[in-house]
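Example 3.2
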Amino acid sequence: RVAVLGAGMAGLLAGIKLQEMGIRDVTIYEKADRVGGTWRENTYPGLTCDVPSHHYTYSFERNPDWTRHLPPGPEIQAYFERVCVKYGLEAQLRFGEKATHAEFLDGRWQLRFESGHADSADVLIAATGVLHRPRLPNISGMDAFKGDLFHSARWDHTVPLEGRRIGVIGSGSTGVQIISALAGLAGLIEHYQRTAQWIMPTENGYYSEAEREAFRDPAVLAAAMDFEGYNAGVDAYTQAIIDENSDGARYMADACLQNLEQGVADPELRERLRPDHRPLCKRLIFSPDYYQAIQHPQARLVTEGIDRIEAAGIRTVDGELHALDLIVLATGFHADTFMRPMTMTGRNGVDLETLWADHPKAYLAITMPDFPNLFMLNGPNGPVGNFSLIDIAEHQWGYISQLLERLRAGDAMEICCSKDALETFENERSEAAKKTVWYTGGCHSWYLDARGIPASWPWTYSRFVERMATPNWADLELVC
């Protein structure tokens, strides 16, 4: 019996792949009322994935019907809902169930939920996602504001936008997309920027009806996807992360710089938009129109620090009161939570919070010592970046499925990594991470853990694919 936590992209993938393995006794638990994960939670104007549309799908369920070169959020959500129905996962789904505790007792995972429901399973798949707990800024006075205020992941669509004075706090991808969507619609839109970001130019055209019809032929779609070129781009990106002198690093840095120099006419505004760190130090922002949007007559970039929020708007440290009707907090998420705030206890009473006291960690982002038969998709220290997490999760599932086969064959009752394997991996990973641009590039980002070390895969993408292909059984403990 298998329990899956989360019905986003990774949880649905697990459900489908378990079906393919012939494992039918599966329940997928979801705290919300429908599938979709981050694409269910985020509905803000301009929401777009920066992975090319046809590469942001399951490899076994391509979608010929994307309308744009970069997939809009509502279309992604609709895609996952269709996949859920097509593969008959509704019978396995249990909505409104927020897991509060999981404990490994007598060879099984015992689960408790906020509703009072309890369950047990031989195998627990944690597909809880990475960016799902909104991070609120520490700004005084938020309760005093008389207008509307909400986090970008809790967008209130009853609030009117046209002609209103809107302030957006946060200059990551979300903030950039909101500004691009609302410039010209809002009466005034102000973008509160603490740190300037490098922006990679990209195009986001529309697919014609003829193209979408042609994509129904898998061979035509495969040719359009140009797997060789895409994979080369992904590998160039990861090479750029670990080697600032690589061709990929130089290309992306030059493209970002040229985008800024040619895209912003006013020299004073251009300098305020010029980052003080190297490209790729933060997650690279892809946008076809942000520089155009921030130069709109009704748009304003605010680089003065925020002192406080008052009843009428935002007071910056220079004393100016910015009168606003709506404040949007595009301030990101707690990227280090993973399964938490649920508590977890493994074998021999080992506690997750103790294991993660300094920072979250897992062997190959999948397994932890003394947490047998618990496998994670997109767990701690796995690959993140400007490429498809669906692709990442599929490779991870290929690894996990080999562990499940050993359990099904009776080769073991319990499987997890050894303590030595995790320690060796984490030491190697941390040292390699200190050589990446995330660490050396002169910025602070959500990629960094509490120690200031990048909490991600610090090697090439091709190395990740190789490690996922075949488990190193010497690093795993199999208990019969």
